[in-house]
Design brief:
7 strands; single chain; about 350 residues; alpha+beta; five-stranded mixed β-sheet; two-stranded antiparallel sheet
Length: about 350
């Protein structure tokens, strides 16, 4: 905005010239006043002392009065001009100090805006530069923090399918013999987890790039993911799921994101849920979008670790991609999480 107002500002040279003529006019009035007063004082003094001056003496007296008045007026002019113009000099000093602050990389300070000339435009330009640089630095810091968070959350999410692969391979090594059907099932699971790791690695390398796909009936996708949720927990937990409040609907979803979301729920359940208590999961459709509610009892004396916090942080990040929210409630040994996905 500052650059649009520059053409409407007065010129500093015009201000200095106007100031010069004002000081000159005041000085001229002072000079005439001093000459008149000096002449009157000299004549009054000669009259009181009965001094009669000839033409030559009067001429030298007048020259002396004019010279003294001129000297006093010149001194007055210089002092007045420098006093009035000193504000501009001081403002130039403020601008110079502001430039030094910018040179040191301190972009939070602002210069005071005074007057309406080129110095004012310069101060506004410096303020604009300071604000712009500060915004750029803030954006860079925000992007860096987002990148670090993405790396942490995706690294955590990669551990879940990797742990599953390690568990399957350990199972093969410990079991003396497997049927072809078992081998086919476990190899299919290992292959699925390997592709999941590949997808997560691709997301990490692409800087969190999403690939949402449109589903004409997204309820079928939710049913499939919830079914897998039950299968992965049913050996150790009593799982109950409810999709009765989720009718058919359409939307755009990133399947890998939804899988990561439920993977983190499963990982937290396996680490911290009490196997003696039931695990419940419900998905319902409402005006706000999709609401996923999961609840379980917590193991006694179980301390939440960094992995727990990272899992929840990953869930929050995925919900944020859908303009959603995450609400967590822990009380009386019960853990409950509500995930809302609004925009899809």
């Amino acid at each position: 905005m500052w650059n649009k107002q520059t053409d409407k500002r007065g010129k500093l040279s015009h201000e200095v010239l106007a100031l010069f003529f004002v000081c000159l006019a005041i000085t001229l009035v002072l000079y005439i006043f001093l000459v008149i007063c000096g002449t009157a004082v000299a004549e009054n003094y000669c009259w009181e002392k009965n001094i009669i001056l000839d033409d030559d003496q009067r001429y030298h007296l007048d020259v002396m009065i004019f010279s003294i008045s001129l000297a006093v007026s010149v001194i007055f002019f210089i002092i007045l001009f420098l006093t009035l113009f000193g504000e501009r000099f001081a403002y130039i000093g403020v601008i110079i100090r502001g430039v030094e602050v910018l040179r040191r990389g301190e972009f939070g300070s602002r210069l005071p805006i005074e007057g309406n000339n080129e110095l004012t435009a310069l101060a506004e330009a410096i303020n604009y530069l300071s604000e712009t640089e500060q915004a750029v630095k803030e954006k860079e810091r925000h992007l860096y923090e987002e990148k670090e968070e993405l790396i942490r959350t995706l690294s955590h999410d990669i551990r879940t399918p990797l742990t599953s692969i390690i568990s399957y391979t350990e199972f093969f090594s410990e079991k003396p013999s497997c049927t072809s059907e078992e081998l086919s099932t476990y190899f299919s699971l290992v292959r699925q987890k390997a592709f999941q790791i590949k997808d997560l690695t691709d997301i990490l390398l692409d800087g969190g790039k999403r690939e949402p796909v449109f589903f004409e009936n997204a309820r079928l996708l939710i049913m499939q993911i919830v079914g897998e949720f039950e299968e992965r927990l049913e050996e150790d937990y009593s799982v109950s799921s409810d999709l009765s409040a989720c009718p058919d609907f359409s939307g755009r979803f990133d399947v890998s994101e939804l899988l990561r979301l439920f993977d983190n729920l499963i990982s937290n359940i396996k680490k911290y849920a009490d196997p003696q208590s039931p695990v419940s999961l419900s998905v319902r459709k409402c005006e706000e979008g999709i609401v996923i509610f999961q609840k379980n009892a917590v193991k006694s004396c179980e301390k939440h670790t960094e992995s727990y916090r990272m899992g929840l942080q990953s869930i929050r990040r995925i919900a944020h991609n859908y303009d959603g929210s995450v609400t967590i409630r822990q009380e009386n040994g019960t853990f409950a999480i509500t995930i809302t996905l609004s925009k899809f």
